[in-house]
Specification:
about 475 residues; alpha/beta; MetI-like fold; D-Maltodextrin-Binding Protein, domain 2; disordered N terminus
Protein backbone atom coordinates (compact mmCIF):
# COMPACT_ATOMS: atom_id res chain seq x y z
CA UNK A 1 0.00 0.00 0.00
CA UNK A 2 2.89 2.38 0.68
CA UNK A 3 4.16 1.85 -2.86
CA UNK A 4 0.80 2.70 -4.34
CA UNK A 5 0.50 5.70 -2.04
CA UNK A 6 3.79 7.01 -3.37
CA UNK A 7 2.62 6.55 -6.95
CA UNK A 8 -0.56 8.46 -6.22
CA UNK A 9 1.35 11.32 -4.60
CA UNK A 10 3.63 11.59 -7.65
CA UNK A 11 0.63 11.64 -9.97
CA UNK A 12 -1.03 14.41 -8.00
CA UNK A 13 2.13 16.52 -7.96
CA UNK A 14 2.64 16.05 -11.70
CA UNK A 15 -0.87 17.04 -12.59
CA UNK A 16 -0.96 20.00 -10.23
CA UNK A 17 2.32 21.31 -11.66
CA UNK A 18 1.50 20.55 -15.28
CA UNK A 19 -2.13 21.51 -15.42
CA UNK A 20 -2.79 23.75 -12.46
CA UNK A 21 -2.26 26.84 -14.57
CA UNK A 22 -5.03 26.03 -17.03
CA UNK A 23 -7.54 28.11 -15.16
CA UNK A 24 -5.22 31.13 -14.94
CA UNK A 25 -5.67 33.86 -17.54
CA UNK A 26 -2.88 34.36 -20.03
CA UNK A 27 -0.37 37.10 -19.43
CA UNK A 28 -1.14 40.62 -20.70
CA UNK A 29 0.47 44.02 -20.82
CA UNK A 30 0.64 45.53 -17.34
CA UNK A 31 0.01 49.06 -18.64
CA UNK A 32 -3.27 48.18 -20.34
CA UNK A 33 -6.65 47.39 -18.78
CA UNK A 34 -7.43 43.70 -19.14
CA UNK A 35 -10.90 42.14 -19.14
CA UNK A 36 -12.50 38.70 -19.31
CA UNK A 37 -15.26 38.60 -21.92
CA UNK A 38 -17.62 35.63 -22.31
CA UNK A 39 -19.26 34.76 -25.60
CA UNK A 40 -21.43 32.08 -27.16
CA UNK A 41 -19.26 30.50 -29.83
CA UNK A 42 -22.14 28.63 -31.50
CA UNK A 43 -23.94 31.67 -32.90
CA UNK A 44 -22.77 32.45 -36.45
CA UNK A 45 -22.48 34.97 -38.04
CA UNK A 46 -21.98 36.87 -34.76
CA UNK A 47 -19.57 34.44 -33.09
CA UNK A 48 -18.24 30.97 -33.80
CA UNK A 49 -15.00 29.02 -33.70
CA UNK A 50 -12.98 28.01 -36.74
CA UNK A 51 -11.18 24.67 -37.12
CA UNK A 52 -7.89 26.25 -35.97
CA UNK A 53 -9.56 27.41 -32.74
CA UNK A 54 -9.81 31.07 -33.77
CA UNK A 55 -13.01 32.83 -32.70
CA UNK A 56 -14.55 34.97 -35.43
CA UNK A 57 -17.81 36.72 -36.26
CA UNK A 58 -19.40 40.17 -36.29
CA UNK A 59 -19.29 40.58 -32.51
CA UNK A 60 -15.75 39.34 -32.08
CA UNK A 61 -14.30 41.29 -35.00
CA UNK A 62 -16.02 44.37 -33.61
CA UNK A 63 -14.58 43.73 -30.12
CA UNK A 64 -11.10 43.28 -31.57
CA UNK A 65 -11.36 46.61 -33.40
CA UNK A 66 -12.69 48.43 -30.33
CA UNK A 67 -9.96 47.00 -28.08
CA UNK A 68 -7.34 48.20 -30.55
CA UNK A 69 -8.56 51.80 -30.72
CA UNK A 70 -9.26 51.96 -26.96
CA UNK A 71 -5.97 50.29 -25.99
CA UNK A 72 -7.24 47.47 -23.74
CA UNK A 73 -6.70 43.72 -23.81
CA UNK A 74 -9.15 40.91 -23.15
CA UNK A 75 -9.50 37.15 -22.78
CA UNK A 76 -12.38 35.46 -24.56
CA UNK A 77 -14.18 32.56 -22.88
CA UNK A 78 -16.68 30.61 -25.03
CA UNK A 79 -19.58 28.88 -23.30
CA UNK A 80 -23.33 28.39 -23.66
CA UNK A 81 -25.34 31.62 -23.68
CA UNK A 82 -27.14 30.79 -20.46
CA UNK A 83 -23.89 30.03 -18.62
CA UNK A 84 -22.28 33.16 -20.05
CA UNK A 85 -25.05 35.36 -18.67
CA UNK A 86 -24.71 33.79 -15.23
CA UNK A 87 -20.92 34.13 -15.31
CA UNK A 88 -21.18 37.90 -15.67
CA UNK A 89 -23.82 38.11 -12.97
CA UNK A 90 -21.54 36.12 -10.64
CA UNK A 91 -18.53 38.31 -11.36
CA UNK A 92 -16.63 35.48 -13.07
CA UNK A 93 -16.42 37.59 -16.22
CA UNK A 94 -16.33 41.33 -16.83
CA UNK A 95 -18.65 41.46 -19.83
CA UNK A 96 -20.69 39.46 -22.33
CA UNK A 97 -20.76 39.91 -26.10
CA UNK A 98 -22.97 37.21 -27.58
CA UNK A 99 -25.71 38.68 -29.75
CA UNK A 100 -27.52 39.57 -26.51
CA UNK A 101 -30.84 41.37 -27.01
CA UNK A 102 -31.42 44.39 -24.79
CA UNK A 103 -34.67 43.91 -22.86
CA UNK A 104 -36.26 45.68 -19.92
CA UNK A 105 -35.84 42.54 -17.82
CA UNK A 106 -32.13 42.28 -18.59
CA UNK A 107 -31.64 45.96 -17.79
CA UNK A 108 -32.46 45.07 -14.19
CA UNK A 109 -29.26 42.99 -13.99
CA UNK A 110 -27.02 44.44 -16.71
CA UNK A 111 -25.66 47.76 -17.89
CA UNK A 112 -25.54 47.85 -21.68
CA UNK A 113 -23.25 49.70 -24.02
CA UNK A 114 -24.39 51.47 -27.18
CA UNK A 115 -26.80 49.19 -29.09
CA UNK A 116 -25.00 47.96 -32.19
CA UNK A 117 -27.34 45.73 -34.22
CA UNK A 118 -31.12 45.52 -34.57
CA UNK A 119 -32.64 42.10 -35.04
CA UNK A 120 -35.97 40.31 -34.91
CA UNK A 121 -37.13 36.74 -34.30
CA UNK A 122 -38.23 34.50 -37.17
CA UNK A 123 -39.66 31.00 -37.33
CA UNK A 124 -38.06 28.39 -39.59
CA UNK A 125 -39.23 24.90 -40.57
CA UNK A 126 -37.74 22.02 -42.55
CA UNK A 127 -37.64 22.54 -46.31
CA UNK A 128 -40.11 19.70 -46.86
CA UNK A 129 -42.51 20.93 -44.17
CA UNK A 130 -46.06 21.92 -45.14
CA UNK A 131 -46.28 24.44 -42.29
CA UNK A 132 -46.65 27.97 -43.63
CA UNK A 133 -47.82 30.02 -40.65
CA UNK A 134 -47.96 30.08 -36.87
CA UNK A 135 -51.53 28.78 -36.64
CA UNK A 136 -50.34 25.41 -37.98
CA UNK A 137 -48.09 24.95 -34.94
CA UNK A 138 -50.98 24.04 -32.67
CA UNK A 139 -50.30 20.91 -30.56
CA UNK A 140 -46.87 20.56 -32.16
CA UNK A 141 -43.38 20.86 -30.63
CA UNK A 142 -41.09 23.77 -31.45
CA UNK A 143 -37.39 24.23 -30.61
CA UNK A 144 -36.00 27.31 -28.88
CA UNK A 145 -32.63 28.38 -27.48
CA UNK A 146 -32.36 28.90 -23.72
CA UNK A 147 -32.21 32.50 -22.52
CA UNK A 148 -32.59 34.13 -25.95
CA UNK A 149 -35.03 36.59 -27.52
CA UNK A 150 -36.38 33.67 -29.56
CA UNK A 151 -37.23 31.83 -26.35
CA UNK A 152 -38.97 34.89 -24.90
CA UNK A 153 -40.96 35.51 -28.08
CA UNK A 154 -42.05 31.86 -28.34
CA UNK A 155 -43.11 31.91 -24.69
CA UNK A 156 -45.16 35.08 -25.22
CA UNK A 157 -47.23 33.54 -28.03
CA UNK A 158 -47.32 29.93 -26.80
CA UNK A 159 -50.84 30.08 -25.39
CA UNK A 160 -52.16 31.95 -28.42
CA UNK A 161 -50.94 29.32 -30.89
CA UNK A 162 -51.01 26.25 -28.62
CA UNK A 163 -47.60 24.73 -29.33
CA UNK A 164 -45.15 22.94 -27.00
CA UNK A 165 -41.62 24.26 -26.37
CA UNK A 166 -38.36 22.36 -25.93
CA UNK A 167 -35.23 24.41 -25.07
CA UNK A 168 -31.65 23.73 -26.17
CA UNK A 169 -28.31 25.35 -25.30
CA UNK A 170 -27.02 25.99 -28.81
CA UNK A 171 -28.39 26.88 -32.24
CA UNK A 172 -26.90 23.92 -34.13
CA UNK A 173 -28.71 21.46 -31.86
CA UNK A 174 -31.94 23.38 -32.38
CA UNK A 175 -31.55 23.18 -36.16
CA UNK A 176 -30.80 19.44 -36.05
CA UNK A 177 -33.90 18.79 -33.96
CA UNK A 178 -36.07 20.45 -36.63
CA UNK A 179 -34.27 18.76 -39.52
CA UNK A 180 -34.71 15.33 -37.94
CA UNK A 181 -38.41 15.91 -37.22
CA UNK A 182 -38.25 15.94 -33.41
CA UNK A 183 -39.61 19.48 -33.58
CA UNK A 184 -41.51 21.16 -36.40
CA UNK A 185 -40.08 24.67 -36.11
CA UNK A 186 -37.27 26.73 -34.58
CA UNK A 187 -37.43 30.28 -33.22
CA UNK A 188 -34.22 32.16 -34.00
CA UNK A 189 -32.87 35.66 -34.62
CA UNK A 190 -33.33 36.60 -38.27
CA UNK A 191 -29.66 37.24 -39.25
CA UNK A 192 -28.52 34.06 -37.51
CA UNK A 193 -31.14 31.92 -39.20
CA UNK A 194 -30.58 33.57 -42.59
CA UNK A 195 -26.85 32.95 -42.32
CA UNK A 196 -27.37 29.30 -41.35
CA UNK A 197 -29.64 28.74 -44.34
CA UNK A 198 -27.11 30.50 -46.58
CA UNK A 199 -24.48 28.04 -45.36
CA UNK A 200 -26.56 24.97 -46.22
CA UNK A 201 -28.94 24.27 -43.30
CA UNK A 202 -32.05 22.63 -44.79
CA UNK A 203 -34.58 25.02 -43.25
CA UNK A 204 -36.77 27.82 -44.57
CA UNK A 205 -38.13 30.93 -42.87
CA UNK A 206 -41.93 31.22 -42.81
CA UNK A 207 -42.47 34.45 -40.83
CA UNK A 208 -41.36 38.07 -40.94
CA UNK A 209 -39.09 39.31 -38.12
CA UNK A 210 -41.06 39.88 -34.90
CA UNK A 211 -40.22 41.15 -31.43
CA UNK A 212 -37.43 43.31 -32.84
CA UNK A 213 -34.72 44.36 -30.39
CA UNK A 214 -31.19 45.73 -30.39
CA UNK A 215 -28.11 43.70 -29.51
CA UNK A 216 -25.86 45.12 -26.82
CA UNK A 217 -22.61 44.54 -24.96
CA UNK A 218 -23.43 43.91 -21.28
CA UNK A 219 -21.69 44.11 -17.91
CA UNK A 220 -22.97 43.44 -14.43
CA UNK A 221 -25.17 46.29 -13.26
CA UNK A 222 -23.19 48.87 -11.31
CA UNK A 223 -19.85 47.29 -12.22
CA UNK A 224 -17.19 47.86 -14.88
CA UNK A 225 -18.15 51.44 -15.81
CA UNK A 226 -14.69 51.86 -17.36
CA UNK A 227 -15.26 48.88 -19.68
CA UNK A 228 -18.64 50.20 -20.84
CA UNK A 229 -17.14 53.63 -21.43
CA UNK A 230 -14.31 52.12 -23.49
CA UNK A 231 -16.76 50.02 -25.51
CA UNK A 232 -18.98 53.02 -26.27
CA UNK A 233 -16.05 55.26 -27.22
CA UNK A 234 -14.48 52.56 -29.38
CA UNK A 235 -17.77 51.68 -31.06
CA UNK A 236 -18.32 55.34 -31.94
CA UNK A 237 -14.84 55.51 -33.49
CA UNK A 238 -15.20 52.37 -35.64
CA UNK A 239 -18.65 53.48 -36.83
CA UNK A 240 -17.31 56.90 -37.79
CA UNK A 241 -14.39 55.35 -39.67
CA UNK A 242 -16.65 52.93 -41.54
CA UNK A 243 -14.91 49.91 -40.03
CA UNK A 244 -18.08 48.63 -38.34
CA UNK A 245 -20.03 48.63 -41.62
CA UNK A 246 -17.20 46.72 -43.27
CA UNK A 247 -17.33 44.06 -40.51
CA UNK A 248 -21.08 43.58 -40.88
CA UNK A 249 -20.86 43.56 -44.67
CA UNK A 250 -18.09 40.96 -44.50
CA UNK A 251 -20.46 38.44 -42.94
CA UNK A 252 -23.92 39.49 -44.11
CA UNK A 253 -23.47 41.67 -47.19
CA UNK A 254 -23.61 40.44 -50.77
CA UNK A 255 -19.87 40.82 -51.33
CA UNK A 256 -19.22 39.26 -47.97
CA UNK A 257 -20.96 35.98 -48.75
CA UNK A 258 -17.91 34.42 -50.38
CA UNK A 259 -15.62 35.62 -47.61
CA UNK A 260 -17.90 34.26 -44.90
CA UNK A 261 -18.07 30.92 -46.64
CA UNK A 262 -14.29 30.78 -46.79
CA UNK A 263 -14.11 31.44 -43.04
CA UNK A 264 -15.88 28.15 -42.54
CA UNK A 265 -12.57 26.47 -43.47
CA UNK A 266 -13.88 24.08 -46.09
CA UNK A 267 -17.13 23.24 -44.36
CA UNK A 268 -18.62 22.62 -47.81
CA UNK A 269 -16.54 19.43 -47.81
CA UNK A 270 -18.47 16.99 -45.70
CA UNK A 271 -16.61 13.71 -46.14
CA UNK A 272 -15.65 11.89 -42.95
CA UNK A 273 -11.93 12.21 -43.63
CA UNK A 274 -12.16 15.91 -44.47
CA UNK A 275 -14.11 16.72 -41.33
CA UNK A 276 -11.67 14.79 -39.17
CA UNK A 277 -8.55 16.28 -40.80
CA UNK A 278 -9.85 19.84 -40.60
CA UNK A 279 -10.65 19.45 -36.92
CA UNK A 280 -7.86 17.11 -35.84
CA UNK A 281 -6.21 19.75 -33.68
CA UNK A 282 -9.52 20.69 -32.01
CA UNK A 283 -10.36 17.03 -31.33
CA UNK A 284 -6.90 16.48 -29.87
CA UNK A 285 -7.17 19.48 -27.55
CA UNK A 286 -10.65 18.46 -26.40
CA UNK A 287 -9.57 14.87 -25.76
CA UNK A 288 -6.48 16.05 -23.85
CA UNK A 289 -8.60 18.30 -21.64
CA UNK A 290 -10.97 15.40 -20.97
CA UNK A 291 -8.09 13.12 -19.95
CA UNK A 292 -6.59 15.79 -17.71
CA UNK A 293 -9.84 16.29 -15.84
CA UNK A 294 -10.51 12.57 -15.66
CA UNK A 295 -7.12 11.55 -14.24
CA UNK A 296 -6.72 14.44 -11.84
CA UNK A 297 -10.38 14.16 -10.82
CA UNK A 298 -10.27 10.42 -10.12
CA UNK A 299 -6.97 10.62 -8.20
CA UNK A 300 -8.19 13.38 -5.89
CA UNK A 301 -11.68 11.87 -5.66
CA UNK A 302 -10.16 8.52 -4.67
CA UNK A 303 -8.20 10.12 -1.84
CA UNK A 304 -11.27 12.02 -0.68
CA UNK A 305 -13.43 8.90 -0.98
CA UNK A 306 -10.95 6.83 1.02
CA UNK A 307 -11.05 9.41 3.78
CA UNK A 308 -14.86 9.37 3.77
CA UNK A 309 -14.80 5.56 3.83
CA UNK A 310 -12.46 5.48 6.83
CA UNK A 311 -14.59 8.10 8.61
CA UNK A 312 -17.65 5.96 7.86
CA UNK A 313 -16.38 3.10 10.04
CA UNK A 314 -14.78 5.21 12.79
CA UNK A 315 -15.66 4.36 16.41
CA UNK A 316 -17.00 7.90 16.92
CA UNK A 317 -20.66 8.30 16.07
CA UNK A 318 -20.08 11.98 15.24
CA UNK A 319 -17.37 11.21 12.69
CA UNK A 320 -19.52 8.49 11.12
CA UNK A 321 -22.40 10.96 10.96
CA UNK A 322 -20.26 13.57 9.20
CA UNK A 323 -19.18 10.99 6.62
CA UNK A 324 -22.74 9.81 6.04
CA UNK A 325 -24.01 13.39 5.66
CA UNK A 326 -21.32 14.39 3.16
CA UNK A 327 -21.94 11.27 1.08
CA UNK A 328 -25.70 11.81 1.19
CA UNK A 329 -25.49 15.46 0.07
CA UNK A 330 -23.06 15.08 -2.81
CA UNK A 331 -24.57 11.85 -4.12
CA UNK A 332 -27.96 13.57 -4.11
CA UNK A 333 -26.87 16.74 -5.95
CA UNK A 334 -26.94 16.51 -9.77
CA UNK A 335 -23.45 17.19 -11.08
CA UNK A 336 -24.61 20.08 -13.28
CA UNK A 337 -26.20 21.82 -10.29
CA UNK A 338 -23.02 21.30 -8.27
CA UNK A 339 -20.85 22.68 -11.10
CA UNK A 340 -22.98 25.81 -11.42
CA UNK A 341 -23.04 26.27 -7.64
CA UNK A 342 -19.22 26.16 -7.44
CA UNK A 343 -18.55 28.20 -10.57
CA UNK A 344 -21.37 30.75 -10.29
CA UNK A 345 -22.99 30.46 -6.86
CA UNK A 346 -19.85 30.72 -4.69
CA UNK A 347 -18.46 33.78 -6.55
CA UNK A 348 -21.87 35.43 -6.14
CA UNK A 349 -21.61 34.86 -2.40
CA UNK A 350 -17.93 35.61 -1.83
CA UNK A 351 -17.03 37.96 -4.66
CA UNK A 352 -13.99 35.79 -5.47
CA UNK A 353 -13.55 34.30 -8.94
CA UNK A 354 -13.19 30.53 -9.31
CA UNK A 355 -11.32 29.41 -12.49
CA UNK A 356 -13.41 27.09 -14.63
CA UNK A 357 -10.80 24.31 -14.49
CA UNK A 358 -10.65 24.51 -10.70
CA UNK A 359 -14.45 24.49 -10.47
CA UNK A 360 -14.59 21.47 -12.78
CA UNK A 361 -12.05 19.45 -10.78
CA UNK A 362 -13.73 20.37 -7.48
CA UNK A 363 -17.08 19.25 -8.91
CA UNK A 364 -15.63 15.88 -9.92
CA UNK A 365 -13.89 15.40 -6.58
CA UNK A 366 -17.00 16.13 -4.50
CA UNK A 367 -19.39 14.13 -6.67
CA UNK A 368 -17.24 11.13 -7.55
CA UNK A 369 -15.63 11.13 -4.10
CA UNK A 370 -19.03 10.69 -2.46
CA UNK A 371 -19.70 7.55 -4.51
CA UNK A 372 -16.20 6.24 -3.82
CA UNK A 373 -16.65 6.90 -0.10
CA UNK A 374 -19.87 4.89 -0.11
CA UNK A 375 -18.44 1.76 -1.71
CA UNK A 376 -15.14 1.99 0.20
CA UNK A 377 -17.08 2.08 3.47
CA UNK A 378 -19.05 -0.92 2.25
CA UNK A 379 -15.82 -2.73 1.39
CA UNK A 380 -14.41 -2.18 4.88
CA UNK A 381 -17.64 -3.32 6.52
CA UNK A 382 -17.70 -6.48 4.39
CA UNK A 383 -14.46 -7.72 6.01
CA UNK A 384 -15.24 -10.21 8.78
CA UNK A 385 -15.41 -8.36 12.11
CA UNK A 386 -13.66 -11.30 13.74
CA UNK A 387 -10.42 -10.29 12.03
CA UNK A 388 -10.45 -6.90 13.73
CA UNK A 389 -11.20 -8.53 17.07
CA UNK A 390 -8.35 -11.02 16.53
CA UNK A 391 -5.94 -8.22 15.68
CA UNK A 392 -6.96 -6.26 18.78
CA UNK A 393 -6.57 -9.34 20.94
CA UNK A 394 -2.98 -9.63 19.73
CA UNK A 395 -2.32 -6.16 21.12
CA UNK A 396 -2.60 -4.05 17.96
CA UNK A 397 -4.12 -0.56 18.52
CA UNK A 398 -7.39 0.13 16.67
CA UNK A 399 -5.75 2.40 14.07
CA UNK A 400 -2.94 -0.01 13.29
CA UNK A 401 -5.33 -2.95 13.12
CA UNK A 402 -7.42 -1.04 10.57
CA UNK A 403 -4.39 -0.10 8.45
CA UNK A 404 -2.73 -3.53 8.56
CA UNK A 405 -5.67 -5.92 8.55
CA UNK A 406 -9.02 -4.42 7.52
CA UNK A 407 -8.16 -1.72 4.98
CA UNK A 408 -5.96 -3.81 2.64
CA UNK A 409 -8.70 -6.45 2.36
CA UNK A 410 -11.46 -3.86 1.99
CA UNK A 411 -9.59 -2.00 -0.76
CA UNK A 412 -9.06 -5.21 -2.75
CA UNK A 413 -12.78 -5.94 -2.55
CA UNK A 414 -13.61 -2.52 -4.02
CA UNK A 415 -11.18 -2.58 -6.98
CA UNK A 416 -13.94 -3.43 -9.53
CA UNK A 417 -15.95 -0.48 -8.20
CA UNK A 418 -12.91 1.79 -8.62
CA UNK A 419 -12.57 0.67 -12.24
CA UNK A 420 -16.23 1.41 -12.88
CA UNK A 421 -15.97 4.81 -11.18
CA UNK A 422 -12.98 5.70 -13.34
CA UNK A 423 -15.08 5.16 -16.47
CA UNK A 424 -18.01 7.10 -15.01
CA UNK A 425 -15.70 10.02 -14.22
CA UNK A 426 -14.48 10.11 -17.81
CA UNK A 427 -18.06 10.35 -19.09
CA UNK A 428 -19.07 12.86 -16.43
CA UNK A 429 -16.47 15.35 -17.65
CA UNK A 430 -18.81 16.08 -20.57
CA UNK A 431 -21.21 17.80 -18.16
CA UNK A 432 -18.53 20.37 -17.31
CA UNK A 433 -18.77 21.89 -20.79
CA UNK A 434 -21.68 23.87 -19.32
CA UNK A 435 -19.25 26.08 -17.36
CA UNK A 436 -17.03 26.79 -20.35
CA UNK A 437 -14.50 23.95 -20.26
CA UNK A 438 -13.68 22.99 -23.84
CA UNK A 439 -13.37 19.24 -23.37
CA UNK A 440 -14.31 16.62 -25.95
CA UNK A 441 -18.09 17.13 -25.87
CA UNK A 442 -17.86 20.92 -26.05
CA UNK A 443 -15.35 20.53 -28.88
CA UNK A 444 -17.96 18.59 -30.81
CA UNK A 445 -20.52 21.33 -30.18
CA UNK A 446 -18.15 24.02 -31.46
CA UNK A 447 -17.30 22.05 -34.61
CA UNK A 448 -20.96 21.40 -35.39
CA UNK A 449 -21.75 25.11 -34.96
CA UNK A 450 -19.29 25.72 -37.78
CA UNK A 451 -19.92 22.86 -40.23
CA UNK A 452 -23.45 21.77 -39.21
CA UNK A 453 -22.53 18.07 -39.65
CA UNK A 454 -24.12 16.85 -36.42
CA UNK A 455 -24.39 13.14 -37.20
CA UNK A 456 -20.80 12.72 -38.38
CA UNK A 457 -19.19 14.84 -35.67
CA UNK A 458 -21.12 13.25 -32.78
CA UNK A 459 -20.31 9.78 -34.13
CA UNK A 460 -16.61 10.70 -34.17
CA UNK A 461 -16.82 12.06 -30.62
CA UNK A 462 -18.64 8.92 -29.48
CA UNK A 463 -16.01 6.66 -31.02
CA UNK A 464 -13.25 8.62 -29.26
CA UNK A 465 -14.97 8.11 -25.91
CA UNK A 466 -15.38 4.38 -26.59
CA UNK A 467 -11.70 3.99 -27.59
CA UNK A 468 -10.47 5.83 -24.49
CA UNK A 469 -12.84 3.93 -22.19
CA UNK A 470 -11.66 0.63 -23.69
CA UNK A 471 -8.00 1.54 -23.10
CA UNK A 472 -8.73 2.69 -19.55
CA UNK A 473 -10.63 -0.53 -18.86
CA UNK A 474 -7.66 -2.62 -20.02
CA UNK A 475 -5.32 -0.54 -17.86
CA UNK A 476 -7.59 -0.81 -14.85
CA UNK A 477 -7.93 -4.58 -15.25
CA UNK A 478 -4.13 -4.88 -15.45
CA UNK A 479 -3.76 -2.87 -12.23
CA UNK A 480 -6.45 -5.01 -10.58
CA UNK A 481 -4.54 -8.20 -11.41
CA UNK A 482 -1.30 -6.73 -10.14
CA UNK A 483 -2.85 -5.81 -6.78
CA UNK A 484 -4.36 -9.24 -6.13
Amino acid sequence: MRKWGLHIAVLIAAFLIGFGGLGVPKGHAANKPHYTIVTDSTYPPFEWQMSDGKLVGIDLDMLKAIAKVENFTYELKPMSFNAAVQSVQAGQADGILAGMSITDERKQSFDFGTPYYESGVVVAVANKSQIKNLTQLKNKTVAVKTGTAGYDYAKSIQKQYGFKMVAYNDSSMMYDVVRTGNAVAAFEDQPVMAYAIQQGVDLKIITKPASTAWYGFGVKKGANDALIASFNAGYKKIVASGQYDKIVHRYLGDTGKKYATNLKSGSNKTSWLTIFNENRSAFGHGLWMTLQMTILGIVLASLWGLLLGVMGIAPSRIIRGISTTIIYIFRGLPMLVLAFFIYIGIPNLTGQKVPAFTAGILTLVLNEGAYIGAFVRGGFLSVDKGQLEAARSLGLPYGKAMRKVIMPQGIRLTIPSFVNQFIITLKDTSILSAIGLVELTQTGTLIIARNLQGFKVWLMVGLMYIIVITLLTWLSNWIEKRMK
